[in-house]
Design a protein that fits this description.
This protein has helices at residues 12-18, 47-62, 64-72, 103-115, 126-139, 169-179, 195-202, 220-241; strands spanning 8-11, 29-30, 34-40, 78-85, 91-94, 98-100, 142-143, 147-153, 182-188, 211-214. The protein is an alpha/beta fold. Strands 1, 3, 4, 5, 6, 8, 9 and 10 form an eight-stranded mixed sheet that branches. A two-stranded parallel ribbon has the order 2-7. Helix 1 crosses helix 5 and helix 2 runs antiparallel to helix 4.
């Protein structure tokens, strides 16, 4: 059954400075993977595009291929959470963790994603968002061999215009490397064909990291499902090598 979920707002820059490696202890729930879906809600995402992002996540968890793959994993369950990022000076919008261990839990999470309100906006503060996602994974009460941040967005992170301290991608990637987390990207390049290369050079990080791309938001749902299957199948591939 899914764990109790509660939406929270946390200051991303402050969270990045607090990142540590807490001991999860013997009470940690064993799962096959922990995934944070870091979704772009910056102003370049129009309202209908935002809804397609969230509907695409929901559709993936309702799909038989995803549900069947989760059921084929050793523990037959994964832990997932949402992080909505936008301007680095805003607080990140986050869900609680859900354990997906069957069709009812998958449907519950899918419905939550469909109904999730858009509460942040502004600039493209991807680095701060990824730093916050690392903190979520570090604090999660689970035991697994794979922690993944699944980033989707339609633009590169610009240089900061403010003098106050914010976490940028180079610092966020250093945090990712230290935490031994994998970051995969889904670049929605629309009118930015160079975005795929930017994601490869600046976003992808960690073991087995990869980047996918789409040109149009209508392609988000199938691409997200393919990306999720690829992320989960990597665990299966590792098990087969042992």
């Amino acid at each position: 059954m899914p764990q109790k979920r509660k939406a929270t707002f946390l200051t991303t820059a402050a969270m990045a400075l607090m990142i540590a490696s807490p001991s999860r202890g013997s009470a940690a729930t064993a799962v096959d993977a922990e995934l944070v879906f870091a979704v772009d809600a910056s102003d370049s995402m129009e309202a209908w595009e935002w809804r397609l992002e969230m509907a695409g996540i929901a559709a993936a968890f309702r799909s038989k291929p995803v549900q069947q793959l989760i059921a084929s994993l050793p523990h037959k369950r994964i832990a997932v959470a949402l992080l909505v990022w936008a301007d680095a000076t805003q607080r990140a919008d986050m869900s609680g963790w859900s354990i997906i261990d069957g069709k009812p839990a998958a449907e519950s999470f899918a419905l939550e994603m469909e109904l999730w309100p858009r509460r942040v906006g502004g600039g493209t503060g991807m680095g701060a968002g990824i730093a916050a996602a690392v903190q979520m994974l570090q604090a999660a009460p689970f035991a697994s061999t794979r922690q993944v941040i699944d980033v989707s967005g339609d633009g590169p992170e610009p240089l900061p215009l403010l003098t106050e301290r914010i976490v940028m991608m180079p610092e966020a990637r250093a945090l990712v490397e230290k935490a031994q987390v994998t970051v995969n990207g889904l670049a929605i390049f629309k009118d930015r064909p160079e975005l795929y290369e930017w994601y490869q050079d600046n976003v992808a990080e960690g073991a087995g990291a990869f980047v996918m791309q789409i040109k149009d938001m209508k392609d988000f749902a199938p691409a997200f499902q393919q990306k999720l299957l690829r992320e989960l199948q990597q665990d299966v591939a590792e098990l087969e090598k042992r």
